[in-house]
Amino acid sequence: MNIFYLEWDSYCNEDVFQVLDELGHNVIKISYKEKKLRKEQAMERLQKALLQSNCDFVFSFNYFPEVSECCKDLGLKYVAWVYDSPHIQVYSYTVINPCNYIFLFDYGMYDELKRAGIETVYYLPLAVNEKRQHEGKPALSAKEFLALMREKKRMVEMTEKMNNRSVNEGFSGGEKKKNEIFQMAMLEPTLAILDETDSGLDIDALRVVAEGVNKLKTPQNASIVITHYQRLLDYIIPDFVHVLADGKIVRTGGKELALELEEKGYAFLNN
Question: Does the model's pTM come out above 0.85?
Answer without folding.
Answer: no
